[in-house]
Amino acid sequence: MMIASLAFAYSGFALLCATTRRHSVNSHFMKRLFHKSHIHKSHTVKNSHPVFAVWPVKPAILLLRLAGLILISLALVYCMSTWGFTVGISAGWLVLAMAAYLVVLTATYLPKKLTQGALIGLLIALVATGITLS
Which pLDDT score, from 0 to 100, does residue 89 have? Predict the structure, then answer.
């Protein structure tokens, strides 16, 4: 269960990280979702930064963010089901911290592999869950 919860948390954090504008420029899949023609900036004075720019979020981005949050909460539920409620919360926070650290390292040193890592992590989590349940 620890491997499944770690893989679910990694996939969730990687999806959340990949759906931000800063990290989406490194992925071909996310470039399509954040195309420049969909960004509408408000009228600003020259040489100033737009503070209240209007950036509509596509439904695909919202679905990926929701999937990331669901995977993170699923990792916490797996930890709580394995070790009980009191120890499971502490183990869940440990799993979330390790997964976040792995996502930070992946986004820093291998940014183009972030979305592939999320899918591989999800596959590992599903296989580990299937092995545990059988």
Answer: 93
What are the tens digits of pLDDT across the range 81-121? 989 999 999 999 999 999 999 999 998 898 888 888 888 99
Task: Report the C-alpha gap between 117 and 123 in whole angstroms.
Answer: 10
Q: Pick from 124, 112, 128: which is nearest to 18 by CA?
A: 112
Q: Whole-angstrom Cα distance, residue 34 to residue 32? A: 6
CB 71 within 8 A of CB 122: yes
- Which residues share a beta bridge with 83? none
Closest CA to 77 of 89, 87, 61, 64: 89
111 phi-psi bin (left φ>0, alpha ψ -120 to 50, beta other): alpha
Residue in this structure with the two tokens 């059988």, named with its chain if needed: 134
- What type of residue sits at position 74? L
What proportions of the chain, in percent to the nearest 5, are helix, strand and coil? 75, 0, 20
